[in-house]
Amino acid sequence: MATFVLVHGAWGGSWGYGALARELRAAGHDVHVPSLTGLGERMHLAHGGITLTDHINDVVCLIDCEGLDDIILVGHSYGGMVITGVSALRGKRIRTLIYLDAFLPQDGQMLWDIVDDGTRGMYIQNQRATPGLIAPIFPIPPGRAGRVSGHPLLTLLEPVKLGGEEGAIANHVYVYASASPVGSFAQFRERCSADPAWTVHDLATGHMLWDDDLAGVTRILLAAA
């Protein structure tokens, strides 16, 4: 049995991983799916002061309180920022890092540094009605209305700090959604493809990979187990 921790992206919550978590549990694995502060079922805690450190600590505290070890830590989209920060703090308890079409920052990079000017403009515009909390910058699919809340702007403005335990992690996987219109992630696929320490998978899906190819995403995660 493997231990998975699945970290969602911006505007998400644990609910977004429901189908994937069920597949992993059906295969006999232990699966933890935290909702980050201010998001998902914790949207009632949303405020403009939430930082990337808060979201990193959400996952670190889960690991510590549940006594988790030999973890397969998975992050989607913005969740890549979070798991990168977690890797520096709890890398000795992580077996594998898996980035699902996710941001992969270098030491000292913030998400704001990585995206383009157009995306930064949308972040600013979409928090004017709710200062500090960014409304989604993409259409909300049917069935998800009411479960999506504003994402804290400050989480995008804090750099990731490495130089801790991240070097203890043995396995690194990047899964690239090759049919996604979101243009931020090709740079990470390119970087990982050039690094023999990484395994790279391409899935012909949109950004929400498991919505389009649940079997493909499950197969990659089970291979890590």
List strands and helices in order, with pairings.
Layout: E1 3-7, H1 18-26, E2 30-32, H2 52-66, E3 71-76, H3 79-90, E4 94-100, H4 111-114, H5 117-125, E5 133-134, E6 151-152, E7 171-177, H6 186-193, E8 198-203, H7 209-212, H8 214-224
Q: What gross morphology would you assign?
A: globular
Poorly predicted runs are: none
Q: What is the CATH topology descriptor?
A: Rossmann fold
Beta-strand fraction estimate: 15-25%
Number of folding domains? 1
Structural class label: alpha/beta
CATH class: Alpha Beta
Kindly report the average pLDDT value: 95
What is the number of E strands? Answer: 8
- CATH architectural label: 3-Layer(aba) Sandwich
Order of helices and strands: EHEHEHEHHEEEHEHH
Please report the distance between the alpha carbons of the first and last residues.
Answer: 8 Å
CATH superfamily: Alpha/Beta hydrolase fold, catalytic domain
Q: Order of strands across the widest beta sheet?
A: 2-1-3-4-7-8
Describe the structure concisely for a colleague.
Helix content is 32%, strand content 17%. It is α/β, with parallel strands linked by helices and 225 residues long.
